[in-house]
Specification:
about 220 residues; alpha/beta; Uracil-DNA Glycosylase, subunit E; six-stranded mixed sheet
Length: about 220
């Protein structure tokens, strides 16, 4: 079973969000608080795709509201991108974790390829409704989800690529029979904000992150 069994055909974004709450298409729903779907308008010009919700996101039901989200918000403001034009989602909609013991902290675990594959129908359904100017993959998991298993963020970060022509299984992310609104769209990848928080030199890592987002900002202002 995958999320495909729970994605309603021809649904609006609101209906997708509601339907996702009942998703049991993989094992990750067990022990979590809720599905964490997305935030932002369907008409967003910029789409951020992250890895998965964290502990705080799982409890609050909204992506990027923890420390990594605050850092992302800071960088977005620094490069002058209007938050109102941003749609934020994750490649995996449930929090994957291991428990440090009963009643103790839940520790993040990186989703594997099977987790991403099981959840992919939700991401595909989202992109059937979205028509952004730029899609930004945040981190390795999101990069592989969008561009294929061989994609390496460290080798391609900050580089604009055509969307969806360069994407793995790109047809899945294009509007059926209508690619015209995608001809001028771009995709790029950068670090996940949480990687910056773990970096030995946060200032250097953050500066590189901001430089990457400036590339996306230039597209939006061009």
């Amino acid at each position: 079973m995958t999320a495909a069994d729970f994605v309603p055909a021809g649904a609006t974004m609101d209906k997708l969000r509601k339907a996702s709450l009942a998703c049991t298409g993989c094992e990750l729903y067990k022990g979590t608080t809720q599905t964490v779907f997305s935030k932002g308008p369907v008409g967003a010009r910029l789409v951020f795709v992250g890895e998965q919700p964290g502990d705080i996101e799982d409890r609050r039901g909204e992506p990027f509201v923890g420390p990594a989200g605050k850092l992302l918000d800071k960088a977005v403001a620094e490069v002058g991108i209007d938050p109102a034009v941003i749609y934020t989602t994750n490649a995996v909609k449930h929090f994957k974790f291991r428990s440090a013991g009963e009643g103790k902290r839940r520790i993040h675990q990186t989703p594997d390829a099977s987790d991403v594959s099981a959840c992919r129908p939700w991401l595909v359904a989202e992109f059937e409704l979205l028509s952004p100017d730029v899609v930004v993959a945040l981190g390795a998991t999101a990069g592989r989800a969008l561009f294929g298993p061989s994609f390496r963020v460290t080798q391609s970060r900050g580089v604009l690529m055509p969307w969806p022509a360069s994407a793995h299984d790109s047809a899945a992310f294009a509007h059926d029979g209508d690619d015209g609104d995608r001809e001028s769209a771009f995709a790029m990848a950068t670090l996940h904000p949480s990687a910056i928080l773990r970096a030995d030199d946060r200032d250097v890592a953050y500066a590189g992150f901001v430089a990457d987002l400036e590339v996306a900002a230039a597209v939006l202002s061009g």
